[in-house]
Write a structure and sequence with these properties.
Distance between the termini: 27 Å
Biased composition (Basic and acidic residues): 33-43, 83-94
Order of helices and strands: HEEHHEHEEHEHHEHEHEHEHEHEHEEEE
Bound molecules: nicotinamide-adenine-dinucleotide
Strand content: 15-25%
Number of helices: 13
Keywords: NAD, One-carbon metabolism
Biased composition (Low complexity): 58-76
Protein name: Adenosylhomocysteinase 3
Largest sheet: 8 strands, mixed
CATH architecture of the largest domain: 3-Layer(aba) Sandwich
Region (Disordered): 33-94
Number of strands: 16
Oligomer: single chain
CATH superfamily of the largest domain: Adenosylhomocysteinase-like
Helix content: 25-40%
Length: 410
């Protein structure tokens, strides 16, 4: 088993947060649209997908592969380099303009996407019905910051804006855009959020650092990601977490279903869309045999891949063995593998040293939430050449011609 830092204590103070599974935006859309129908409930939403330049990375999931949308709508402008929604003035059909998205004209298409997603969510539909009477969120002013499904991100953002929700998010945001969007949601005139719905802790940390007085007026936080929860624990240890926070991963329907089964599906979908790789016979190393890792291993095994696992937790390692996977040290196997997937939430799981040893054509991607799992920064050296192959797919080329395929780069 790999002897590496499992504590997450050394993670950087500001982590990038990476994303989620394909339906998350729709869940939010559902929730937020419903909320605005309630009296005196307000929501501002930020999130989005950043473009090349000063990137933020995302983990590999359906949400991170936007090359081949299966949607029927063709958004010819959505990936235009250089065009920024921040320069556009837009209104929805009712004249509402407190949003910043790619194109409000995509609202009808986005609404159809939301409706399609509803079919897959009988639980949340039932909850919405129940909440219609109880109005449990009456008075809530929620700032939401989350990842979305890349294929339909811009369209769903448009649907939200058309519904009167202040949404600041678009596919292709730069790092600076990303923080600008959060800022616009947190610090707006005539608006004071009293709840945070976070996914990675970015909204929480921005508020705490930049607007401590506003933060004091927050009643509670809901945090979706393991990484965000680690950050909350760090705050708590430092005595800075002065308000209650809910860890969504404490809900069994999140960890045991979303992390496991959604990732079981999205890993194949994402790799296929981004690389067109055939899985049969490929040697795959999955780092981490938690819920996400289990889902990835199961899917890849089902496709005929030869799957290896690294784990630092003896019980999870034993589970991997009992499920028929070989538990290895990364160095044992690194020269042979065709695909490497990180699913630990930890940092520096894959180092430059590992990547130097990989064979030509090896695909490397992160399924976890934190972009610190793969030391991508270490690949930014003058002797390596970067070549963008398609959206979210880069080739990194070594001086001898060896190239690795990096998905959803930082
Ligand atoms: N991509 C997605 O759609 C998606 C969905 C849910 C969760 N996530 C993210 O995936 C990550 C994992 O989530 P999870 O629910 O599986 O968490 P988990 O805690 O169940 O599993 C993580 C596993 O990684 C192991 N690990 C930690 N450091 C390691 C290392 N250096 N080498 C090998 N193994 C190591 C741990 O022992 C643990 O078993 C988190 O960052 C989470 O936020 C991503």
């Amino acid at each position: 088993m790999e002897e590496v830092d499992s504590t997450n204590e050394n993670l950087p103070e500001t982590y990038d947060f990476l994303p989620v599974v394909s339906n998350d935006v729709d869940k939010l859309a559902e929730k937020f649209v419903t909320e605005t129908e309630h009296e005196k409930q307000e929501t501002k939403l930020t999130g989005g997908m950043k473009s090349r330049g000063k990137y933020r990375s995302r983990s590999l999931s359906a949400s991170s592969t936007d090359s081949f949308s299966s949607a029927s709508y063709t958004d010819t402008s959505s990936d235009e380099e250089g065009s920024t929604p921040r320069e556009k003035v837009q209104n929805n059909s009712k004249g509402f303009d407190d949003f910043c998205i790619k194109n409000i004209g995509q609202a009808a298409f986005g609404r159809r996407e939301v409706e399609i997603a509803e079919q897959e969510m009988p639980g949340i539909m039932a909850l919405r019905k129940r909440a219609e009477k109880d109005k449990p969120l009456k008075g809530a002013r929620i700032v939401g910051c989350t990842h979305v499904n890349a294929q339909t991100a811009n369209e769903v953002a448009a649907a939200l804006a058309e519904a009167g929700i202040s949404v600041f998010a678009w596919k292709g945001e730069t790092e600076e855009d990303f923080w600008w969007c959060i800022d616009r949601c947190v610090n707006a005139e005539n608006w004071q959020p009293n709840m945070i719905l976070d996914d990675g802790g970015d909204a929480t940390h921005l508020m705490l650092r930049k607007y401590p007085t506003l933060f004091k007026m927050i009643n509670g936080i809901v945090e979706e990601s393991v990484t965000g929860v680690h950050r909350l624990y760090q705050l708590s240890k430092a005595g800075k977490l002065t308000i209650p926070a809910i860890n969504v991963n404490d809900s069994v329907t999140k960890t045991k279903f979303d992390n496991l089964y959604s990732c079981r599906e999205s890993i194949l979908d994402a790799l296929k869309r981004s690389t067109d790789v055939m899985f049969g016979g490929k040697q795959v190393l999955v780092c981490g045999y938690g819920e996400v890792g289990k889902g990835c291993c199961s899917a890849l095994k089902g496709m005929g891949s030869i799957v290896y696992v690294t784990e630092i937790d003896p019980i999870c390692a034993l589970q991997a063995c009992m499920d028929g996977f070989r538990v290895v040290k990364t160095n044992e196997i690194i020269r042979n593998i065709d695909i490497l997937i990180t699913a630990t939430g930890n940092k520096n799981v894959v180092t430059r040293e590992h990547m130097d040893k990989m064979k030509n054509g090896c695909i490397i991607c992160n399924m976890g939430h934190s972009n610190t799992e793969i030391d991508v920064q270490s690949l930014r050296t003058p002797n390596l050449t970067w070549e963008k192959v398609r959206s979210q797919v880069d080739h990194v080329i070594w001086p001898d011609g060896k190239r690795i395929v990096l998905i959803a780069e930082v």
